[in-house]
């Protein structure tokens, strides 16, 4: 498992088990275990809301870094247009297994990252996680990839995270961030 980076000043989240949705004897999953699931996940599902109120969900890759889940998208793509109207999102990851693993749901706001040094660091993290096919350069506050158009990078700092432990014991842990 990866050791996810956390901002030095960020306090740990308030963590609580929801016994209504947990097996008898289950305990709250420690935040570092859930953060490691976010760091190691190869794929995430991003849920946004279209300007007319209809939901939009799409799979994408991303990087958990410094206490936020980062993803990128072209500025003309549906998810970018949705975020321009409403930056509130849900990101999910996990497994399709019913009796094993952990599913994680992250609720938060997607804010665009434009700082050159931060983008350069994130580009290195993307390539380290996904390989050289996912090498990005940084120009004018965006990722670029070869001749392809720019990609805007967004950071989602969690407001609330849910961790669903599957298999005995089943558990639902809520993490609240300040």
Structure description:
- The structure is a single chain.
- The chain is an alpha+beta fold.
- Helices cover 19% and strands 39% of the residues.
- It has 3 helices and 11 strands.
- It has helices at 31-40, 78-85, 116-130; strands at 14-17, 44-49, 55-60, 63-65, 68-73, 88-93, 102-113, 137-139, 142-144, 152-165, 171-176.
- Strands 1, 2, 3, 4, 5, 6, 7, 10 and 11 form a 9-stranded antiparallel beta sheet that branches. Strands 8-9 form a two-stranded antiparallel sheet.
- A hairpin with a 5-residue loop joins β10 (152-165) and β11 (171-176).
- It is globular.
Task: Please outline the helices and strands.
Layout: E1 14-17, H1 31-40, E2 44-49, E3 55-60, E4 63-65, E5 68-73, H2 78-85, E6 88-93, E7 102-113, H3 116-130, E8 137-139, E9 142-144, E10 152-165, E11 171-176
Antiparallel strand pairs: 1-11, 2-3, 2-6, 4-5, 5-10, 6-7, 7-10, 8-9, 10-11
User: What's the N-to-C terminus distance?
Assistant: 26 Å
Overall pLDDT metric? 93
Structural class based on helices, strands and sheet pairing: alpha+beta
Report the biggest beta sheet as strand number plus sense, adding barrel if it closes: 9 strands, antiparallel
Total of DSSP H or I helical runs spanning 4+ residues: 3
Shape: globular
Structure summary, number of beta strands = 11
Unreliable runs: 1-6
Q: Strand-and-helix sequence, N→C?
A: EHEEEEHEEHEEEE
| Cα-atom radius of gyration | 17 Å
Helix content: 10-25%
- Residues in β-strands, percent: 35-45%
